[in-house]
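Quick one from the shared queue. A colleague (R.T.) flagged Phytanoyl-CoA dioxygenase family protein as missing a structural entry in our internal table.

Convert sequence to structure tokens.
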Amino acid sequence: MMLRSVFRNARDFFPQRRFASGNSFHHGDPLPITLTPSRDEVDRLQLSSRNIEAAIRSLHKDGLVVIENVVDHPSLDALNEVMTRDAYALRDKPDSPFNYNPGNIQQDPPPVLEHFHKSIFLNRVASQVTSTFLGPRPKWTFCSGNTAMPPTPESPPQSQPVHTDADFSHPAHPFALVVNIPLITMTPENGSTEPLVKKGSVVIRDLRLWHAGKGNHTPDPRVMLAMIHFAPWYRNSMRLAFAEDIRSVIEGQSELEVPVDWISRDKILSNYLNRGFGNSYDFNQTP
């Protein structure tokens, strides 16, 4: 969803830029910080104090941070299989929910238990970063994705216009973070962010960051999930819609506040591919 134009615009949005691998920082590099946690951090699903500091610093300076090796690959593979199939079904709908051009579609993951992988949707490293940055128990009220579709003769690869998802009157300080999780490695060929983002990574970005989706030049869809964690004080009124069979998983965690409308499995499976376009969601807060 973010690419070269994102980070160039981020220089205007956040004044300084740094790059890091692990705890090694390089001043003046035009790339964002990428953190590679230690084996112990990955096993414990918790970043060290130094890496948390690096992540928070990057979010304040650049508006985003990339954290590698924190999402389970088998879970990504399983979800990618079903979402790739769904992507073609969405593309072929007469009212396909595209974002600016037909090659970039808004796509929700299937909200039922067998596809709800905790490593993806309740990623503890992502929640550790968002709760440290925004305050305890951020509110998770948005769960969708952006899919860059393979080119067709009618729809060659196109870039989105550079835009921000915070296109409303909002606080001047941070109030929401987007947790982006690619289901496959993202490269310049398939609609990547900049730099290359490896499979198993999370990209955490400030909702206010300007960005643009890029075209996919490969024969396979590139799915990237987008989950928004709002600050606990931010009065966003959106609610998630999940199948009843996920209730025990959501109620069994304590890292996030998750407002949910619980819906029967049959009903939600018949409707989850009929959600709104990207611009139809309201990220504002009540007065």
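The domain at 34-164+174-277 is CATH 2.60.120.620 (Jelly Rolls).
Residues 73-91 form the longest helix (19 residues).
Added to the table.
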